[in-house]
Specification:
about 25% strand, alpha+beta, four-stranded antiparallel β-sheet, six-stranded antiparallel β-sheet
Length: about 260
């Protein structure tokens, strides 16, 4: 695994015992080593990289990305602990993850893992092909909380309407259909992130979690994400007794 680097790290305190962090994690693409470290000429190196890239299977690319994401979120967790001057160790043997000494609950998120579920196959294939020639790059996020298990989801892509229609509850679809296209797309994405966060909290199966009815939150989501966007928006889920935090500029949703 190449050495990972965190960039543009942002730390946010949600309350006196809940914090989150987000960053972009990068690693040099092993298919494109620096010229100074490679004895091949520039032209030969270009040819060599094209052959190496073509030899990687989709499974190998996905495995490499998963390894980077797994290492990246843990690197971000350590960065957050350093920021808070906490000395602790992650116990990730079972869900929910916890810190061993403080017993804080921990939840991770990263981009790239489920984009093929949110988007059409053609778009996913196009992104995969583009990824072959780019440096590996993902956004990662982590939340720690002393209260109870928390969920977090960072998502940079939109949720296609046909995907929402397939997975979302009928009450949600009915409400979303009354909105403008812009409002519908915004609410559909935020709903997806809320569902993902609750899936992580309760360990629902994917279809079960996506099919939950959160239509009662849509009006608040639209109001919170319209016009002026404060850095942090808190919505109270009175039905489930949770707080939902929208960090719109970071494209993060947290449920705790």
């Amino acid at each position: 695994m190449p050495l990972l680097h965190l960039h543009n790290t942002q730390y946010t305190q949600l309350d006196d015992k809940t914090w989150c962090a987000a960053a972009q994690v990068t690693a040099p693409n092993p298919l494109n080593p620096p010229d100074s470290l490679n004895p091949l000429s520039h032209s030969a190196l270009f040819s060599h990289d094209r052959i190496a890239t073509a030899s990687l299977s989709a499974r190998e690319i996905a495995q490499q990305q998963r390894q980077q994401q797994r290492a990246g979120v843990r690197l971000l967790l350590q960065s957050l602990l350093n920021k808070l001057e906490f000395t602790d160790t992650l116990d990730d043997c079972s869900f929910p993850y916890r810190l061993i000494s403080s017993q804080y609950f921990v939840c991770f998120s990263h981009t790239g893992a489920h984009s093929k579920t949110i988007h059409s196959k053609s778009a996913s294939t196009q992104r995969k092909n583009e990824k072959l020639s780019d440096d590996l790059s993902n956004k990662v996020a982590v939340v720690i909380s002393a209260h109870r298990p928390a969920g977090i989801d960072i998502e940079t892509n939109h949720v296609e309407w046909q995907v929402a229609q397939r997975f979302y509850h009928a009450n949600e679809i009915a409400f979303l259909q009354t909105l403008s296209t812009v409002q519908r797309d915004t609410a559909a994405k935020l709903l997806w992130q809320i569902k993902e966060s609750f899936i992580k909290i309760h360990q629902y199966k994917l279809a079960q979690g996506l099919g939950m009815d959160y239509s009662y939150l849509i009006a608040d989501l639209i109001n919170g994400s319209s016009e002026k966007k404060p850095p942090l928006i808190v919505i109270k889920d009175t039905k489930n007794d949770y707080r939902i935090v929208l960090l719109l500029s970071q494209q993060i949703v947290i449920v705790y």
